Every structure is written in C-alpha cells, then in structure tokens.
Amino acid sequence: MQLKNIKIVAIGGGHGLGRVLSTLSFLENQLTGIVTTTDNGGSTGRLRKRSSTIAWGDLRNCLTQLVDKDSVGSQLFDFRFDGGDELGGHNLGNLVLFALGQIQSRPLDSIKLVRRLLKVKTPVLPMSETPTDLMAFYPEGRCRVGELSVDEMPVMPKNLMLAPLVKTLPHCRDALADADLIILGPGSFLTSVIPPLLVRDIVNGIKASKAHCVFIENIVAEQSPSSVLSLDEKLLWIKENIGCLPIDSVIANGSNVSSEILPVLNCDLAHDNIEHYHDRKKLINALEQCVANISKPQASLKNSTPEDLSRAVNS
Questions:
Q1: pTM of the model
Q2: Which of the 8 DSSP states describes residue 13?
Q3: Beta bridge partners of 144
Q4: Residue 113: closest CA among 102, 97, 125, 91
Q5: Among the CATH numbers 3.30.390.10, 3.40.50.10680, 3.30.70.270, 2.40.440.10, which is that of 3-314?
Q6: What DSSP string runs through 266-308?
Q7: pLDDT tens digit string along 191-215?
C-alpha cells in the first residue's frame, strides 16, 4: 500500500499540521485536515476578543500551506500588517476569514469559499464550528484558561478540558470513518495535538475507524510544560485525560526513542537548514514505512481499557 493510494486524515495545530498538509498536498482530496481552533494569541486572539468566533489563525495557515507560495493568493493571506495602530500585527488572511465568518451562516461555508478562491483541493476542517477555549487544571485544583496560559504553565497540568464542550462536524466524522491512515501531530502537545482529542466525537471517530493512527513526535523540545515528558509519559497522559489511547504507533526523529506501550519508528526527519522543521521527503519516507507496516499484525490499544494499558506498560 502506497500513500498515493490511500485516504489520510491529519489532525493538529497550525504550523505542524500545515507542514504535514503541505508535504502530502499531492493527495489533493484524498487528504483531509482537521484543525485545532482554540488559539487565543496574536491576531487570532484579538479577533476572538472582539467577537465570539473560532480561532482562524491555524486554519488560515493550513490553507496557505496548500497553495503555491509564489501565488498572489498565498501572499495576500499570509500578509501581516506592521505598525502600532489597530491593524498592526493583524494577518490579512485572519481578517478575511473573520469577516466571512460574520457574513456566512457557518464557519465551514467561509472555509469552502476561501478554498475556492485559493484553489485548494484538500478539505480543511475546523475541529468544531463552536467557539471554545482550553482549560488546564493544576494538580491542586487551580486552573488556567486559554492556549497562551497553558503553554506558560510552570508544571504539567493534571487535566485539560474544553469550555464549553463542543461537537465536531459530520464532515470530520465521515473523513475519519473513510480514512486508511490518521496522523496526529507534530506540534505543541498540549495546545495543538490534545485539543481535538478533547472533542468526544473525534476520539470516538478515531477509535471506530479502520485506519491506523500514528503520532508524529516533534523534532526539538517545545516551549511548554510537556517538554519534560518522555514519549510514554505523553501516551499515559493522553490515556488518563481522554480515557483511552487512540494511537497505534509513533514516528520519532532520531535513533533512540523507545516505548514500552507502542511500536516506534525511529527515522531521521530533521530538515537540513531549519532544525525544528520536518523535512518533506524524509517525512514521506517515514509515512511510507508506517503504511508498509500497517499490514503486519500488531496489538492495538485503540479500544483498550485502562487495565489493558497497564498490562502493556508492565509486560
């Protein structure tokens, strides 16, 4: 089985997911992106303070990653105003999506319109059309609200949740049901990878799907409390927070990342010039290896109970 012959759903936040979508853009409508929509910083955060809306920044970044960088559309949607006035710091693409969101009946209609304008064939979907924020709880019960606050926490949160709880779109559920491969990450663990997993429909969709679900680790340590966690600590944290581990395997950079829970494919994934970037050709090769291994029998923990996971860790 080759990548060009399968349907892939990639889930995560702006920069990491954008890199994956850009890498796999040759799949066109065989590829679907499900984008985290909880960002509350920068231009997106300012727009969310102005009016109740989903976070548009990661969606805009993913859309422009699927467009020729030299095109007028890409340059317009990536254009950022400078200066210290009201426009300073705003991204034009965010403003366009925000304005369309005020005009259209639903965010998905705005995204479809922009896809037509930019000639993007790959479906790019928000994890939910309902505005929501991250809430992180300290071990002693105090909490922080918003992505920016979560990444600035001095310790790993005990729990994360969405406030309010939201549902995903039927298009997301359908894409997960039809997928052959589901990709989580790379990106910020707490603020890009985890938020979609807090949407119960998405987790249930991954668990019910026939697809193999692979988690792609970051190239370098991120600036967040999760930077101190080992791979297995991340996997156990996911299980504790969402009640299951909807992942079948892991792709990690380097040669010495191991897990007692899941199979790990160790590869050289780093870009030669930008240390935190996944190299496109190397990432495709790693995903090809992952797909080649799907047909090999292996235990799946996607629908495991906590007792099953404990046995896997201690075996």
A1: 0.92
A2: -
A3: 136
A4: 97
A5: 3.40.50.10680
A6: EE--B-SS-TTSBPHHHHHHHHHHHHHHHTS-----TT--HHH
A7: 999 999 999 999 999 999 999 999 9
